Backbone:
């Protein structure tokens, strides 16, 4: 059943079958160009607390965490996911992938509002592996919403969601399993 969390944010659990999600997790862990990037904060370089990979159409460089990323080519598992998103009527041309190796890996509060995504970006976020909490915080009211992003789910953020809300994936020290998240995006420039 689809669940609208808040305006412009929709959660679809079981968007993939259990078997499709298991197969995708295995394939993506092998196929993607995983690396641990770094980020410049308060005058120092820090390792990003997760692995990441960036794939997509050629020449669609993307500025993320203060660095320009050049896309690696699509892989079979990514092409399959993208095709499934095409069937829903979306047209993503890149994907930023995150591999949370266990519950120590995390992502801090941020918005997906890079200028390359244009106004009202559409973020298509597929979750595989361990379920992890996902927090949304309203920028004006500071209201916080929490949901668990389950294996095989799709979260769609569009409209004014990036304008109004920040999001994060906090650490969960008791989680020993890995999680792969794919955020398909459309670079419009
Ligand atoms: O792992 C997630 O569910 C969130 C990923 C995310 O926020 C991002 O890639 O910008």
Residues:
């Amino acid at each position: 059943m689809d669940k609208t969390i808040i305006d412009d944010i929709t959660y679809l659990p079981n968007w993939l079958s259990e078997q499709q999600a298991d197969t995708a997790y295995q394939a993506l862990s092998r196929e993607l160009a995983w690396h641990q990037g770094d980020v410049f904060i308060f005058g120092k370089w820090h390792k990003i607390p997760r692995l990441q990979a960036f794939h997509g159409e050629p020449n669609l460089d993307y500025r993320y965490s203060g660095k320009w990323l050049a896309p690696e080519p699509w892989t079979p598992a990514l092409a399959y996911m993208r095709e499934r998103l095409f069937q829903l009527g979306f047209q993503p041309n890149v994907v930023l992938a995150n591999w949370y190796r266990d519950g120590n890996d995390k992502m801090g509060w941020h918005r997906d509002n890079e200028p390359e995504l244009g106004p009202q970006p559409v973020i298509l976020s597929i979750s595989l592996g361990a379920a992890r909490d996902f927090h949304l915080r309203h920028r004006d009211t500071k209201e916080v919403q929490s949901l668990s992003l389950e294996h095989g789910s799709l979260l769609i953020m569009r409209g004014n969601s990036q304008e109004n809300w920040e999001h994060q994936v906090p650490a969960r020290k008791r989680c020993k399993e890995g999680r792969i998240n794919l955020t398909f995006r459309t670079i419009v420039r």
The pocket of 2-oxoglutaric acid is lined by residues 96, 98, 107, 112, 125, 134, 149, 167, 169, 181, 183 (CB under 6 Å).
